[in-house]
Structure formats: structure tokens, C-alpha cells
């Protein structure tokens, strides 16, 4: 192994990402070194590319970006146990602290000190990634590298969808981005009766209907109330999964929910957004905010479901060799794609 690698770097505080040569990371006693095979481009990476206000406030420059990956262990620190050189892995990109109340209670995903690879710490858009062995998730043979590279956003979908019991329930998902579409597939897989997904973008609605057994609706063209009666539902949706970050979508969701309905919020509104709280109170609605993935419960559930027939491959619409990364980002920025996967060879 040479000690230089290719890496996709936020090298300057301006729009863009740059392919540069960097030193291969040195690992500590509790880390592994992963040779990256495939990576997924995330909405977060688009914010970092665009260098918007959030990115400027959050991301140190220079930084190797990227957090969705699959690869192979090529080196291990001396204290690492239970993993092996040559093992195919993905991993949790949230690096947690071990001191907080929640972390000590075993709720690692609620640790307030969490730092993200590719956002606060060197990331996975590189030939090699250093990761604490704690964060590593081995991949079974049934999960190939490109699915391994999208387990992070699939994990967001699974974490959100499994927030409430969906068996026999009618589910409304607002936002047919990659995560909304995968959440729809998960909701069907675990036994929801009807799954309706909304978006304003016709390309996204088409993709949703291709990938999952859902009713895809543009709320500007079709009234959700009509859909409810067409499907023979009496009182509205039981569970809502908000995956657009749009205030209008949340309003529609509250309106379309049954009394006592439940909402899981994953979508991130751009700033403060007005909410009709009295409507939520009088409908006795439960709202849960969802951040990241449960470490590691979400990973266990998602891998088990993938081994047991959950199929989300259709959400990957584009694949590029990493040297064509700019094209991959262009496609993602266009807003018509599903997941875009980069191949690191
Ligand atoms: P995305 O931007 O690809 O998808 C969002 C979709 O919502 C788009 O297709 C857009 O057309 C649609 N949309 C916009 N307005 C709408 C409306 N009024 N009604 C219905 N649909 C509407 O995003 P994604 O990668 O699929 O992620 C989904 C959301 O989850 C985003 O808001 C993202 O920021 C957020 N997210 C949160 C976490 C977390 O940990 N909480 C993690 C990852 C992503
Ligand atoms: Zn991501």
C-alpha cells in the first residue's frame, strides 16, 4: 500500500469539491482502516458542495467529505476484536461520545457529542477511511457493495418507519426523495395496509411507484381526501412519516391523519416554520423527531429485512466511476434522480 490516496475534498470555502491526494489515515489501537469500494451521494453532500449557510457554519475546511460507504477492512488496530482483514463492511458514520447520560444508558444515537464523518471529521469519499471498530457493521453476502453504500439513508428510512407499529396501518409519507421511497418500501415490507406517498416532482413520484408498492400522489393535482375515500379508508391515515422538510406537507399530513394519529418527523425544514399547534392538540397527535439511526438496533433490523426480501435497489438510479464524481453531483443537484453511487474501483 502506498501512503497516498485519492480523496474528494472540500478544499476551499466556496461551491465545489476537489479530487486531491491525501495521506492514508493512520489508525489508533481501536480503529480499523477500510478500503472504500462504493459510496453514496447524500443530500448533505450537496449542501457541502453548494456551500450554503449550514455548510459554512458546520464544515471545517479542508475536509474529506462523504459518509455513505461500503468497503473492506485492510488494517486493524491492536485492540480490535471480532473483525478480520478482508471482511466486507459498512458502518455508522456518527462518532459518539461515551460520557453522556444517554450514551451510558446505551442509547448511543442520542449522544449530544456526536460528530459526523464527512461533516465534522474526515469522511468516506476517499480510497481509505479510518473508523473506530465500534462503528463498523459487517456486511453479509446477501448485501452487495452498492446496497452497503446506501445503508446510511436506508437506516434513516428504517429508523423513521419503525418508530410506530405499522402492521395493518394506513401510512402517509410526504416527500418521495430517496429516503421517503425507501421508507415506503419498508412500510410495505413490515405489513402496512395502504402506503400513500406525496411529492411535487413527477420524476420522484414515478420512481416511488417503480420501487415500492405505493400510491404516488401529487397533492397539487389530487386531493388527499379523495385518495382516502378511493382506497376505502374511513377516517384518515394512522401514521405519517414526514420526509420532505416542507411545512405545506406537514399541514397536509396533520389534516389527513386520524384522531390520535402518530407522526415521525425526519425531514428538516430550512428554518423556523409556522405550525398550527391547536390542530395538532385537538387531534391528539403524537409527534416524534427522528435523527440518524438507532445505534445499532436500526442496523440489525435493516440487514435482517434486506436478507428477508426487502428490495430497495431500484432507488439507485445512477452509478459513476469516482473520477466522474462531478457528473454524479450534477445529477443529484438536478433533483430528478434517486440515489447516485460512486465506484472507487
Ligand atoms: P430529498 O430532498 O431528496 O427529498 C425530499 C423530497 O420532498 C423531494 O423529492 C421534494 O420534491 C419533496 N417535497 C418538497 N416539498 C414537498 C411537499 N410540499 N409535499 C411533498 N413532497 C415535497 O431528501 P432525502 O435525501 O430523501 O431526505 C428526506 C428529508 O430527510 C430531507 O429533508 C433531509 O434533509 C432529511 N434528513 C434528515 C435526517 C435526520 O437524521 N433527521 C437524515 C437524512 C435526511
Ligand atoms: Zn447520508
How would the blueprint of this fold be written?
Elements: E1 4-10, E2 18-23, E3 31-41, H1 43-50, H2 53-58, E4 63-64, E5 68-76, E6 88-91, E7 94-95, H3 101-104, E8 115-116, E9 128-132, E10 136-138, H4 145-148, H5 151-161, E11 171-174, H6 178-189, E12 195-198, H7 202-211, E13 215-217, H8 224-230, E14 237-242, H9 247-256, E15 257-265, H10 277-282, E16 286-289, H11 297-307, E17 316-321, H12 325-334, E18 339-343
Parallel strand pairs: 11-12, 11-14, 12-13, 14-15, 15-16, 17-18
Antiparallel strand pairs: 1-2, 1-4, 3-5, 3-9, 3-18, 5-6, 6-10, 7-8
Describe it.
- This protein has about 350 residues and is an alpha/beta fold.
- The chain has 2 domains: about 5-150 and about 310-345, Quinone Oxidoreductase, Chain A, domain 1; about 155-290, NAD(P)-binding Rossmann-like Domain (Rossmann fold, 3-Layer(aba) Sandwich).
- Helices cover about 30% and strands about 25% of the residues.
- It contains 12 helices and 18 strands.
- The strands form 4 sheets. Strands 3, 5, 6, 9, 10, 17 and 18 form a 7-stranded mixed sheet that branches. It has a 6-stranded parallel sheet with strand order 13-12-11-14-15-16, with helices on both faces. A 3-stranded antiparallel sheet has the order 2-1-4, with no helix packed on it.
- Helix 5 crosses helix 11 (about 295-305).
- The two termini are about 15 Å apart.
- The site of zinc ion has 6 residues, from helix 5.
